[in-house]
Amino acid sequence: MDLYDVIHRRRDVRAEFTGEPVPDDVLDRILTAAHAAPSVGNSQPWDFVLVRDPQTRRRFYAHVQVERDTFAATLEGAAAERFARIKIDGVLESTLSVVVTYDPQRGGPAVLGRHAIADAGLYSVCLAIQNLWLAATAEGLGVGWVSFYREPFLADLLGIPPGIRPVAWLCVGPVSHLQTVPDLVRHGWRTPRPLAAAVHADRWRAGENHPMG
Ligand SMILES: Cc1cc2nc3c(=O)[nH]c(=O)nc-3n(C[C@H](O)[C@H](O)[C@H](O)COP(=O)(O)O)c2cc1C
Q: Which residue in 4, 9, 162, 180 has its CB near the most CB atoms, within 10 A?
Protein backbone atom coordinates (compact mmCIF):
# COMPACT_ATOMS: atom_id res chain seq x y z
CA MET A 1 0.00 0.00 0.00
CA ASP A 2 1.10 3.50 -0.80
CA LEU A 3 1.86 5.68 2.27
CA TYR A 4 -0.90 8.20 1.54
CA ASP A 5 -3.34 5.37 1.01
CA VAL A 6 -2.46 3.94 4.44
CA ILE A 7 -2.76 7.36 6.08
CA HIS A 8 -6.25 7.83 4.69
CA ARG A 9 -7.40 4.23 5.24
CA ARG A 10 -6.37 4.27 8.93
CA ARG A 11 -9.35 4.33 11.28
CA ASP A 12 -9.91 4.13 15.00
CA VAL A 13 -11.57 0.71 15.35
CA ARG A 14 -14.03 -0.45 18.00
CA ALA A 15 -16.82 -2.55 16.46
CA GLU A 16 -15.01 -4.27 13.60
CA PHE A 17 -12.55 -6.54 15.46
CA THR A 18 -13.02 -10.21 14.48
CA GLY A 19 -11.38 -11.61 17.64
CA GLU A 20 -8.74 -13.47 15.65
CA PRO A 21 -5.16 -13.42 16.95
CA VAL A 22 -2.41 -11.20 15.58
CA PRO A 23 0.29 -13.41 13.99
CA ASP A 24 3.66 -13.11 15.77
CA ASP A 25 5.55 -11.99 12.65
CA VAL A 26 3.01 -9.23 11.99
CA LEU A 27 3.17 -8.09 15.61
CA ASP A 28 6.93 -8.01 15.38
CA ARG A 29 6.79 -5.81 12.27
CA ILE A 30 4.34 -3.29 13.73
CA LEU A 31 6.31 -3.03 17.00
CA THR A 32 9.52 -2.61 14.99
CA ALA A 33 7.81 0.23 13.10
CA ALA A 34 6.76 1.84 16.39
CA HIS A 35 10.29 1.49 17.75
CA ALA A 36 11.67 3.23 14.62
CA ALA A 37 9.87 6.49 15.50
CA PRO A 38 11.82 9.70 15.98
CA SER A 39 12.32 10.75 19.61
CA VAL A 40 13.69 13.78 21.38
CA GLY A 41 17.41 13.31 22.06
CA ASN A 42 17.00 9.81 20.57
CA SER A 43 15.73 8.90 24.02
CA GLN A 44 13.19 6.27 22.80
CA PRO A 45 11.16 6.83 25.98
CA TRP A 46 8.46 4.28 25.13
CA ASP A 47 7.73 0.71 26.27
CA PHE A 48 5.05 -1.64 24.99
CA VAL A 49 3.11 -3.90 27.35
CA LEU A 50 1.39 -6.66 25.37
CA VAL A 51 -1.82 -7.53 27.17
CA ARG A 52 -3.47 -10.78 26.15
CA ASP A 53 -4.70 -12.04 29.52
CA PRO A 54 -8.54 -12.08 29.33
CA GLN A 55 -8.92 -11.34 33.04
CA THR A 56 -6.74 -8.24 32.81
CA ARG A 57 -8.71 -7.06 29.77
CA ARG A 58 -12.00 -7.66 31.59
CA ARG A 59 -10.82 -5.64 34.59
CA PHE A 60 -9.74 -2.82 32.32
CA TYR A 61 -13.05 -2.99 30.43
CA ALA A 62 -15.00 -2.64 33.70
CA HIS A 63 -12.94 0.45 34.57
CA VAL A 64 -13.57 1.91 31.10
CA GLN A 65 -17.33 1.52 31.65
CA VAL A 66 -17.10 3.51 34.89
CA GLU A 67 -15.21 6.28 33.07
CA ARG A 68 -17.70 6.16 30.22
CA ASP A 69 -20.48 6.77 32.75
CA THR A 70 -18.47 9.59 34.33
CA PHE A 71 -18.21 11.33 30.96
CA ALA A 72 -21.83 10.57 30.05
CA ALA A 73 -22.94 12.29 33.27
CA THR A 74 -21.41 15.56 32.00
CA LEU A 75 -23.63 15.53 28.88
CA GLU A 76 -27.18 16.71 28.36
CA GLY A 77 -29.91 16.50 25.75
CA ALA A 78 -28.91 15.65 22.18
CA ALA A 79 -25.22 15.17 23.06
CA ALA A 80 -26.15 12.64 25.76
CA GLU A 81 -28.36 10.76 23.30
CA ARG A 82 -25.67 10.77 20.64
CA PHE A 83 -22.97 9.56 23.04
CA ALA A 84 -25.21 6.72 24.23
CA ARG A 85 -25.08 5.29 20.69
CA ILE A 86 -21.29 5.49 20.35
CA LYS A 87 -19.07 2.50 21.11
CA ILE A 88 -15.85 3.75 22.69
CA ASP A 89 -13.71 0.60 22.90
CA GLY A 90 -13.06 -2.88 21.58
CA VAL A 91 -11.23 -4.13 24.66
CA LEU A 92 -13.10 -7.44 24.85
CA GLU A 93 -13.53 -7.95 21.11
CA SER A 94 -9.84 -7.67 20.19
CA THR A 95 -7.58 -10.37 21.62
CA LEU A 96 -4.48 -8.20 21.96
CA SER A 97 -3.98 -4.81 23.55
CA VAL A 98 -0.75 -2.85 23.46
CA VAL A 99 -0.26 -0.39 26.30
CA VAL A 100 2.31 2.23 25.41
CA THR A 101 4.12 3.95 28.25
CA TYR A 102 6.39 6.98 28.70
CA ASP A 103 9.52 6.99 30.85
CA PRO A 104 10.68 10.61 31.39
CA GLN A 105 13.96 9.37 32.93
CA ARG A 106 15.04 7.46 29.80
CA GLY A 107 18.14 8.97 28.23
CA GLY A 108 18.40 11.52 31.07
CA PRO A 109 19.27 13.63 32.84
CA ALA A 110 20.37 15.73 29.83
CA VAL A 111 17.88 14.82 27.09
CA LEU A 112 19.04 16.77 24.06
CA GLY A 113 16.17 18.98 22.89
CA ARG A 114 13.93 18.59 25.96
CA HIS A 115 15.36 21.22 28.30
CA ALA A 116 12.78 23.85 27.31
CA ILE A 117 9.83 21.63 26.42
CA ALA A 118 9.23 18.81 28.88
CA ASP A 119 6.35 17.50 26.74
CA ALA A 120 8.77 16.67 23.90
CA GLY A 121 9.23 13.23 25.52
CA LEU A 122 5.49 12.63 25.42
CA TYR A 123 5.34 13.82 21.79
CA SER A 124 7.94 11.13 20.98
CA VAL A 125 5.75 8.41 22.46
CA CYS A 126 2.81 9.62 20.37
CA LEU A 127 4.93 9.33 17.23
CA ALA A 128 5.71 5.71 18.12
CA ILE A 129 1.98 5.14 18.53
CA GLN A 130 1.25 6.69 15.14
CA ASN A 131 3.93 4.51 13.50
CA LEU A 132 2.33 1.45 15.11
CA TRP A 133 -1.13 2.56 13.95
CA LEU A 134 -0.05 3.11 10.34
CA ALA A 135 1.99 -0.11 10.20
CA ALA A 136 -0.97 -2.07 11.57
CA THR A 137 -3.20 -0.49 8.91
CA ALA A 138 -0.72 -1.47 6.20
CA GLU A 139 -0.87 -5.04 7.59
CA GLY A 140 -4.67 -5.04 7.28
CA LEU A 141 -5.21 -4.85 11.08
CA GLY A 142 -7.29 -2.40 13.07
CA VAL A 143 -6.23 -0.29 16.07
CA GLY A 144 -8.46 1.43 18.61
CA TRP A 145 -7.08 3.95 21.09
CA VAL A 146 -8.86 3.85 24.44
CA SER A 147 -8.36 6.81 26.76
CA PHE A 148 -11.33 6.35 29.10
CA TYR A 149 -9.17 5.41 32.09
CA ARG A 150 -7.34 6.89 35.05
CA GLU A 151 -3.58 6.54 34.87
CA PRO A 152 -3.15 5.25 38.47
CA PHE A 153 -5.69 2.47 37.80
CA LEU A 154 -3.87 1.28 34.69
CA ALA A 155 -0.44 1.59 36.31
CA ASP A 156 -1.66 -0.57 39.18
CA LEU A 157 -3.36 -3.10 36.86
CA LEU A 158 -0.18 -3.68 34.85
CA GLY A 159 2.43 -3.14 37.57
CA ILE A 160 3.86 -0.08 35.83
CA PRO A 161 6.51 1.44 38.17
CA PRO A 162 6.09 4.90 39.71
CA GLY A 163 7.26 7.68 37.39
CA ILE A 164 6.37 5.82 34.20
CA ARG A 165 3.14 7.01 32.59
CA PRO A 166 0.72 4.90 30.58
CA VAL A 167 0.00 6.95 27.45
CA ALA A 168 -2.33 4.72 25.45
CA TRP A 169 -4.29 1.50 25.62
CA LEU A 170 -4.42 0.29 22.02
CA CYS A 171 -6.73 -2.55 20.97
CA VAL A 172 -5.09 -4.32 18.04
CA GLY A 173 -6.38 -7.09 15.81
CA PRO A 174 -7.79 -8.37 12.55
CA VAL A 175 -10.94 -6.57 11.42
CA SER A 176 -13.89 -7.42 9.18
CA HIS A 177 -13.35 -4.09 7.43
CA LEU A 178 -12.31 -0.51 8.11
CA GLN A 179 -14.98 2.17 8.04
CA THR A 180 -14.43 4.81 5.38
CA VAL A 181 -15.92 7.53 7.60
CA PRO A 182 -14.76 7.94 11.25
CA ASP A 183 -17.32 6.70 13.82
CA LEU A 184 -17.66 10.10 15.46
CA VAL A 185 -18.49 11.67 12.11
CA ARG A 186 -20.98 8.92 11.22
CA HIS A 187 -22.71 9.40 14.57
CA GLY A 188 -22.92 13.16 14.13
CA TRP A 189 -20.70 13.78 17.17
CA ARG A 190 -18.27 16.05 15.40
CA THR A 191 -17.93 17.33 11.85
CA PRO A 192 -14.41 17.39 10.44
CA ARG A 193 -12.77 20.77 10.05
CA PRO A 194 -11.47 21.61 6.57
CA LEU A 195 -7.70 21.81 6.18
CA ALA A 196 -7.92 25.42 5.02
CA ALA A 197 -9.37 26.41 8.43
CA ALA A 198 -6.31 24.95 10.17
CA VAL A 199 -3.69 26.70 8.05
CA HIS A 200 -2.50 30.16 9.03
CA ALA A 201 -0.29 32.38 6.92
CA ASP A 202 2.64 33.96 8.77
CA ARG A 203 0.71 34.76 11.97
CA TRP A 204 -2.07 33.17 13.98
CA ARG A 205 -5.40 34.66 13.03
CA ALA A 206 -8.48 33.46 14.87
CA GLY A 207 -11.75 32.65 13.19
CA GLU A 208 -10.65 33.10 9.59
CA ASN A 209 -10.25 30.62 6.83
CA HIS A 210 -6.86 30.90 5.23
CA PRO A 211 -6.53 29.53 1.77
CA MET A 212 -3.25 27.70 1.35
CA GLY A 213 -0.50 28.84 -0.90
C1 LIG B 1 -5.29 10.50 22.05
C2 LIG B 1 -6.50 9.79 21.50
C3 LIG B 1 -7.40 9.20 22.38
C4 LIG B 1 -8.55 8.55 21.88
N5 LIG B 1 -9.40 7.94 22.76
C6 LIG B 1 -10.47 7.25 22.27
C7 LIG B 1 -11.33 6.52 23.13
O8 LIG B 1 -11.14 6.45 24.34
N9 LIG B 1 -12.38 5.88 22.60
C10 LIG B 1 -12.64 5.92 21.26
O11 LIG B 1 -13.63 5.31 20.82
N12 LIG B 1 -11.82 6.57 20.41
C13 LIG B 1 -10.75 7.23 20.88
N14 LIG B 1 -9.90 7.88 20.01
C15 LIG B 1 -10.19 7.83 18.56
C16 LIG B 1 -10.76 9.13 18.01
O17 LIG B 1 -12.11 9.28 18.40
C18 LIG B 1 -10.62 9.08 16.49
O19 LIG B 1 -9.26 9.07 16.17
C20 LIG B 1 -11.29 10.26 15.79
O21 LIG B 1 -12.67 10.25 16.02
C22 LIG B 1 -11.02 10.25 14.28
O23 LIG B 1 -11.40 9.01 13.74
P24 LIG B 1 -10.38 8.09 12.94
O25 LIG B 1 -9.23 7.81 13.88
O26 LIG B 1 -11.15 6.86 12.59
O27 LIG B 1 -9.93 8.87 11.75
C28 LIG B 1 -8.78 8.52 20.48
C29 LIG B 1 -7.85 9.09 19.61
C30 LIG B 1 -6.71 9.71 20.10
C31 LIG B 1 -5.72 10.28 19.12
A: 9
